[in-house]
Amino acid sequence: MPPIREQLVGVIDCLPETEQSLLLEIARRFLPDDVATPDDLEAIRLARAEYARGDTVPHSAINWN
Length: 65
Hints:
mainly alpha, 3 helices, about 60% helix, about 0% strand
């Protein structure tokens, strides 16, 4: 029996386009939507370093208008 990935591709190829879009929506539900990107991780690292150095701005110092 072929590997699961090959079987999935074979099944997908046999489905009509309308069913493929439904299958895509189902598959996307298994993907995490809260995974940090490399840019996110770098921004977090920089923010933590600034915080550790005390490079913060008090809430009251911000002009919110």
